[in-house]
């Protein structure tokens, strides 16, 4: 397996982080390079990223997890998640599409019932749930304690 290195993001990484987030089609809001961990290929290319995003209600979210398509299924996302969770106080939330549930369960995340969600995730779940209802997709809110 090719060695991938992880490091804290720097200001000059932000254009590549933003481009990767947009390219993968995930939520582009709340991107702050200072919260990101990035993965680099042996030649220094930014190939993945993720952040721990705080919310006004005090909750913390594993967010903006993205990997360049050519580097997927090679353990990059797993390494990013493990490194981010190592330094995160609990609980940590995340949102994902339903088909990703088994992947995140490997890291101890479990689906959260609406009554057990923080206020931010309860509002988000209701809003996005209404939108996705018409696309035959499901948004999950998951949490690890």
CATH architecture of the largest domain: 3-Layer(aba) Sandwich
Q: Please identify the structural class as seen in this structure.
A: alpha+beta
Rg computed from alpha carbons, rounded to a whole number of angstroms = 15 Å
Percentage of residues in DSSP E strands: 25-35%
Instruction: Please report the number of helical segments.
Output: 4
Distance between the termini: 31 Å
**CATH class wording of the largest domain:** Alpha Beta
Total number of strands: 7
Shape: globular
Give start-end ranges of low-pLDDT stretches: none
Main pleated sheet? 4 strands, antiparallel
Number of domains: 2
In round numbers, the mean pLDDT is 93
Strands ordered across the widest β-sheet: 1-2-3-4
Helicity range: 25-40%
Could you name the CATH topology of the largest domain? Aminopeptidase
Summarize the helix and strand pattern as letters: EHEEEHEHEHE
* CATH homolog superfamily of the largest domain: Gcn5-related N-acetyltransferase (GNAT)
Q: What tags apply to this protein structure?
A:
145 residues, alpha+beta, Aminopeptidase, 4-stranded antiparallel β-sheet, 3-stranded antiparallel β-sheet, 7 strands, 28% helix, 28% strand
Q: Can you give me a brief rundown of this structure?
A:
Helix content is 28%, strand content 28%.
Overview of this protein structure:
- This protein has two domains: 1-89, Aminopeptidase (3-Layer(aba) Sandwich); 90-145, no CATH class.
- By secondary structure, it is an alpha+beta fold.
- The chain contains four helices and seven strands; from the N terminus they run E-H-E-E-E-H-E-H-E-H-E.
- Strands 1-2-3-4 form a four-stranded antiparallel β-sheet, sandwiched between helices. Strands 5-7-6 form a three-stranded antiparallel β-sheet.
- The longest helix is centred in the C-terminal third of the chain and has 14 residues, at 119-132.
């Amino acid at each position: 397996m090719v060695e991938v290195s992880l490091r804290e993001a720097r200001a000059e990484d932000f254009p590549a982080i933003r481009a990767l987030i947009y390219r993968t089609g995930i939520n582009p809001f709340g991107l702050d390079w200072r919260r990101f961990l990035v993965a680099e290929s042996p030649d220094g290319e930014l190939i993945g990223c993720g952040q721990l995003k705080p919310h006004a209600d005090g909750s913390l979210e594993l967010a903006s997890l993205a990997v360049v398509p050519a580097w997927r299924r090679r353990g990059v996302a797993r390494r990013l998640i493990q490194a981010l969770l190592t330094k995160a106080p609990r609980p940590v939330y995340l949102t994902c599409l339903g088909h990703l549930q088994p992947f995140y369960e490997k890291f101890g995340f479990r689906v959260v019932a609406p009554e057990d969600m923080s206020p931010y995730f309860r509002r988000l779940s209701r809003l996005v749930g209404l939108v996705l209802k018409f696309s035959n997709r499901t948004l999950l809110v998951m949490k690890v304690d």
